[in-house]
Amino acid sequence: MSSKGKAPLLDASKVNADLIKLTYGALVAQIVKDYERPEDVNKQLDKLGYNIGVRLVEDFIAHHNIPRCLDFRQTAERIQQAFRFYLGMQPSVGNWSPAGNEFSLTWEQTNPIGDFVEFPDHLRPLQYSRVLCGAIRGGCEMVQIDVTINIAREFLLADSATELRVKFNKRLEDALPVGED
Amino acid sequence: MSITSQSVYYVGDLKTPLGLHSVISQDFGPSVFDQSLKKDVTFWPVSTFALLFAQAVDYYQHRVDTIRQLEDKLSHLGGQVGSRLLDHFMSNHQKTKREQRILPMLLLVKGALWKHLFGKEADQLEQSNEADNTYYIIEKDAVTNRFISVPRDKSSLNCGAFLAGLVQSFLSDSGFACSVVAHAHKGTTLVVEFDKAIVVRDKSYDGSR
């Protein structure tokens, strides 16, 4: 990774996955306390994920020597690859719409970040995986792809899998700098 | 008498299900009882943590007035993680014995816990010269501080507060009431200050031997 005598450019150290999951869980708990209405919490989580995605793209490209995507199928592959890299669990890509502009990312029988989560009844509208959607959206936006993501199935709410539905909207022509928040 | 001995009792893997365990395993595949408590520790790239933690700091930053409050918030966040981590960590390391003395407990934190979390031990563990209830856990390159660039007007902010909160609740929940504060000294130094009662208890073990 690095030539002799230089500090490594890429940090190869690792952190326990449970620590990360618990940290996210604690953060969600805090946000729930601050906002109370699940819809507002979802909005916050989405923003959080978006900010992660915006920063993540550079890190991802630095770690992987990858060329530009030529079609949406390649984009799907990249997203899959990114999940494998960051969350160690690769979703399956499938369920393509006939027009080829919509697909699903599916984790069967699991939620990659939800190992320690229990949902109380009054928080059922809360979308715990919203952060993943935000991250995909932010990441894609940084490479000029506008996507919409919905949570089709949520393992934590007793579905059989966690499924994110990614829909291609348009190519962004102007790469405007994104304001931080 | 002879009827019961013939037909009713089955044990082990005989055909008829007996009790909850076999009922579950028949319907849903392997049951929770078949799984080992010890799980493989999975590690994710440090970037994942860095990205998430940066967002946590960012989230709190807009909701506090002083740096002190921000550190308190981070410490609280770490505390939430620490107390949940305790059970998980102990079962994973199959510790059948609870630590009673201060030093082995601190060594456990410095060694096994740090290895469990970050794949390496913390750099140093020292005891204060002045106070017998104060210890220092020194980590030169803490992940919480590595990726957070602190603006000049907030230079007193130490994101190690997260780790401090984590260690504090980890120790407190295992019966060592203490307060932990992070200082920026030799990297990050976690100052662990035990309650007086804990030190008295620790000394009383000396007397009994």
Automatic annotation (TrEMBL), chain A:
A Pfam family found in this protein is TRAPP
Looking up SUPFAM superfamilies in the UniProt record yields:
Ligand-binding domain in the NO signalling and Golgi transport
Q: Name one GO cellular component term.
A: endoplasmic reticulum
Q: Does the keyword Cytoplasm apply?
A: no
Q: What is the predominant subcellular site recorded for this chain?
A: endoplasmic reticulum
Q: Name one GO biological process term.
A: Golgi vesicle transport
* Keyword match Membrane: no
Give the family this protein belongs to, as stated in its UniProt record: Belongs to the TRAPP small subunits family. BET3 subfamily.
Known function: May play a role in vesicular transport from endoplasmic reticulum to Golgi.
Query: What name is this protein filed under?
Result: Trafficking protein particle complex subunit
UniProtKB/TrEMBL annotation, chain B:
Biological process, per Gene Ontology: endoplasmic reticulum to Golgi vesicle-mediated transport
Gene3D superfamilies noted in UniProt: Trafficking protein particle complex subunit 3
Its cellular-component GO annotations read: endoplasmic reticulum; TRAPPI protein complex; TRAPPII protein complex; TRAPPIII protein complex
Sequence similarity: Belongs to the TRAPP small subunits family. BET3 subfamily.
Name its cellular compartments. Answer: Endoplasmic reticulum; Golgi apparatus, cis-Golgi network
> Which PANTHER family would you find in this protein's record?
41-2 PROTEIN ANTIGEN-RELATED (PTHR20902), TRAFFICKING PROTEIN PARTICLE COMPLEX SUBUNIT 5 (PTHR20902:SF0)
How it assembles, according to the record, is:
Part of the multisubunit TRAPP (transport protein particle) complex.
What role is this protein assigned?
A: May play a role in vesicular transport from endoplasmic reticulum to Golgi.
Q: Which domain of life is it from?
A: Eukaryota
Know the name of this protein?
A: Trafficking protein particle complex subunit 5
